[in-house]
Amino acid sequence: MQIRPGNPEFLDLPWEHPISEWVHSRIVDMPTGVHRHPVRFVAYEEGIYAIKEMPVFLSRREYTVLVALEERTHRAAEPAGLVLRGWLDPHDESSGAVVTRYVEHSFPYRRLVSGTGFGARRSQMLDALAGLLVELHMSGCYWGDCSLSNVLYRFDAGGIEAIMIDGETSELHPSLSRGQRMQDLEIMKENLAGEMADIAAMNDEEIFEADLGLGEDIAGRYEALWAELTSELVIARDEGYKIRERIAKINELGFAVDDIEIEPTDSGGVVRMVTHVGGRTYNSDRLIELTGIEASENQARLLLSDLNYHLAKYGDTTATAKSVGTFKWLTNVYEPLVKEIAAIWHGDDPIQGYCDFLNHRMALATAQKADVPNDQAFQSWIAEGFPGFSPEEAPVAPSA
Ligand SMILES: Nc1ncnc2c1ncn2[C@@H]1O[C@H](COP(=O)(O)OP(=O)(O)O)[C@@H](O)[C@H]1O
Ligand SMILES: [Mg+2]
């Protein structure tokens, strides 16, 4: 048995028997989607866990992918342990098991679709599913089995968060080719069409009444989001503000900009910009790693955009230039301003003040369609009485 730290040891469970035979005080019933392997749920002080039994090679694969994915996204089931029943043939259906943390307050998409349907939130629900696939693909994860039973959803501050479970067919790569991504979408579309036909049959509906185009609809949303996140931007050298606008757009979609590549084009006065997009909960981690600044997720997103903007604008895009550039931004831009804000501003969190200022600078540049130097933007921010940027208005990323 392999257990991840922070979880119980699960030693009191009757592992000598297949989980379907378990009669145990820790067993609890939870809603599930349609599934092929036996799944049971157990309650501990640490929380509820899902146990899925399957042959060793599948268990290992799922566990390995989920562990590695944890580094890249928080939108997949959290692995807690791997159990191998060494006394059984490794091809035996119950020779292995994966334990994951139960995703609280969540339900499989399948339950919603077979019950009341998506209702008014259809568009939001489908965007969440498309967004999950985009995020997994950005993380180099080929799923291989996206379906209505394998995606859970939960409501999160007005938004919907989609979460991946069931990674037994998944593969992690440094990055995915277009072919791999398209194949994953094909599998999703096939799965969904099959499930919708199934649901129609269960509800005694004719097949033409089933929403067989659901997968296509999601694939379309996926393509639009992917294009939005990855398209190249070609700008003139004095149009630096467009870099910031683009970063803001990507951030608004809930994604962080990891990296920007700038290359001169043949025509000299024009540069091409390629953005590398990261996960949706990594902003604060990354900010600490790069600068030591501890900020909330939304503040961190803004600060990183500001940093990336400075790096891109001053051409600090190689690794060494970047660390020097980061230090320059920290000592010449960020720290002096935050110090000044702390002295003159009414609020109690100078970092929030800095974010308010960034928001103001952005509004000025967008209105003037030109870069506004920091000093000028700062004076304007003071003169206008520190126009706010209440945290509620900030783009909110669904929490992990
Ligand atoms: N970590 C989890 N949190 C909540 N529900 C889970 C979790 N893991 C599994 N489930 C539920 O159990 C069902 C079956 O799990 P899944 O991994 O999809 O098994 P299978 O490979 O048999 O399809 C899912 O549809 C889901 O409802
Ligand atoms: Mg499944």
Structure write-up:
The chain has helices spanning 56-69, 109-114, 122-138, 178-202, 214-230, 240-252, 283-291, 297-313, 319-344, 350-368, 374-383; strands at residues 2-3, 27-28, 39-44, 47-54, 79-84, 96-101, 107-108, 141-142, 151-156, 159-164, 171-172, 233-236, 257-264, 270-277. The strands form four sheets. The protein has a six-stranded antiparallel beta sheet, with helices on one face. Strands 7-9-10 form a three-stranded antiparallel beta sheet. Strands 12-14-13 form a three-stranded antiparallel beta sheet, covered by helices on one side. Strand 3 (39-44) and strand 4 form a beta hairpin. It is elongated and about 70 Å long. The longest helix has 26 residues, at 319-344. The model is unreliable at 390-400 (pLDDT under 50). The chain has three domains: 2-101, 2-Layer Sandwich (Phosphorylase Kinase, domain 1); 107-227, Orthogonal Bundle (Transferase(Phosphotransferase), domain 1); 231-393, no CATH class. By secondary structure, it is of the alpha+beta class. Adenosine-5'-diphosphate (ADP) is lined by residues 32-33, 35-37, 39, 50, 52, 77, 100-103, 106, 108, 149-150, 152, 165-166, 168.
